[in-house]
Amino acid sequence: MSIAYAPRLIPYVSEPQLGAAFRRRSCRPDGSLGDSQWWDHERGGWDNAWDPARHLASLPRDADRPARQYLATPVDVADDPATIADVFAIASDRSILSDVDAMPGNQVYNLTRGWSSKPY
Hints:
Elements: E1 5-13, E2 18-27, E3 33-39, E4 46-47, H1 52-55, E5 57-58, E6 68-74, H2 75-78, E7 83-90, E8 96-99, E9 107-110, E10 114-117
Antiparallel strand pairs: 1-6, 2-3, 2-5, 2-7, 3-4, 7-8, 9-10
């Protein structure tokens, strides 16, 4: 299955390789949040069991400026208002080194609200 991507690329500047995981959470009738579902980058579609081999995709680097990496969002993910993009610094073995959103002074892109600076 071919996955279509939204035309807008979101830039991140980082020496370590970054990876993206997309998750969504449904809202139960009582207003509480349901379990997370993760976007499978290989086959497309959502599933519940977190597996970094399927759910964590490396961000492509700019050929001229290797520290610049781009978050490309699948159209099916961008069209779902319950989706959050989690961006991580990742190691070569696909382990998560750190949560990019938690890095001091980092600007975070929310898929529905745009750029925001988090105070630290």
